[in-house]
Automatic annotation (TrEMBL):
Name of one Pfam family that matches: Glucosamine_iso
Domain Glucosamine/galactosamine-6-phosphate isomerase: 13-228
Protein name according to UniProt: Glucosamine-6-phosphate deaminase
Catalytic activity, reaction form: alpha-D-glucosamine 6-phosphate + H2O = beta-D-fructose 6-phosphate + NH4(+)
Residues of the active site: 65 (proton acceptor), 134 (for ring-opening step), 136 (proton acceptor), 141 (for ring-opening step)
CDD domains for the chain: GlcN6P_deaminase (cd01399)
Keywords for the protein's UniProt record, in alphabetical order: Carbohydrate metabolism, Hydrolase
HAMAP family tied to this protein: GlcN6P_deamin
Record bears the keyword Transit peptide: no
């Protein structure tokens, strides 16, 4: 696991965009997360698209998850969110931005079809991940099998509380979601997990230094061969090995575009 620590979320976003850029240039299949954390990275990618000609025209994308019970047209659906935050501002074809249907009448069929669509696309080349304060990745809540596949899941009360900020009240937060499984996510060829802010410090520590455990779904990244964890100082604050991670990191020149 590669651990990269920067002072601020803006600096983290620079590194994330630079890690993603070579993949985008080759028309990779991107795995996209929603939530607040990736937004500075998305803004930097939009800037590179507008100012530096970074083209997404040959890319396709798969979202990690979707609230179950929200139609795509709802402004807080992840279908709508990713368009608002990223894909409507770049040159990726809208039909190449795939997501789970939160209004699917038959969720079992929906998740099967989604797995098949990812497979038909040749798999995800590089997957962006955030992390929940309870250690979830996508909406794989604690106790999710580390080999789980895409499925319908009940959101943890902590996730409902954390995500209430996107809705008028916590009563409006859906209690269920369709989510790629941990086993599904682990098949992506590269993973980039971004964690910023003090609220993520405990989860970041459990992910990096805790035991491999379904109690912290993100700890599954310890088993991935190409996983990079990008943290700001606040999210890295509880790491016991902080000095080591900082010492071993900078073989990638700061501010340059690097390929993994
Ligand atoms: C969303 C997703 C979630 C979020 C996580 C953190 O697609 O996969 O796992 O990444 O809940 O959310 P934020 O970034 O809003 O703190």
């Amino acid at each position: 696991m590669e651990i990269i620590i920067r002072h601020t979320p803006a600096e983290v976003a620079q590194v994330a965009a630079s890690l993603l850029e070579p993949f985008i240039r080759t028309g990779a299949t991107l795995g996209l997360a929603t939530g607040s954390t990736p937004n500075p990275t998305y803004q930097e990618l939009i800037r590179r698209h507008r100012e530096e000609g970074l083209s997404f025209a040959k890319c396709r994308a798969f979202l990690l998850d979707e609230y179950y019970g929200l139609p795509a047209s709802h402004e807080q659906s992840y279908h709508a969110t990713i368009r608002r935050e990223l894909t409507h501002h770049i040159d990726i074809a809208d039909e190449n931005v795939h997501s789970l249907d939160g209004a699917a009448v038959d969720p079992a069929q929906e998740v099967e079809d989604y797995e098949e669509a990812i497979e038909d696309a040749g798999g995800v080349d590089i997957q962006i991940l955030g992390i929940g304060t309870n250690g979830h990745i996508a909406f794989n809540e604690p106790t999710s099998s580390l080999r789980s596949r895409t499925r319908l899941i009940t959101l943890h009360p902590r996730t409902v509380a954390d995500n209430a900020r996107f809705f008028d009240s916590s009563d409006e937060v859906p209690r269920h979601a369709l989510t790629q499984g941990i086993g599904t996510i682990m098949e992506a060829r590269h993973l980039i997990l971004i964690a910023t802010g003090p609220a993520k410090a405990d989860a970041a520590r459990a992910l990096i230094e805790g035991p491999l455990s379904a109690s912290c779904p993100a700890s599954a990244l310890q088993l991935h061969n190409n996983a990079t964890v990008l943290l700001d100082e606040a999210a890295a604050a509880n790491l016991e090995g902080l000095a080591y991670y900082k010492a071993k990191e900078p073989y990638w020149p700061v501010g340059e575009t690097y390929s993994c």
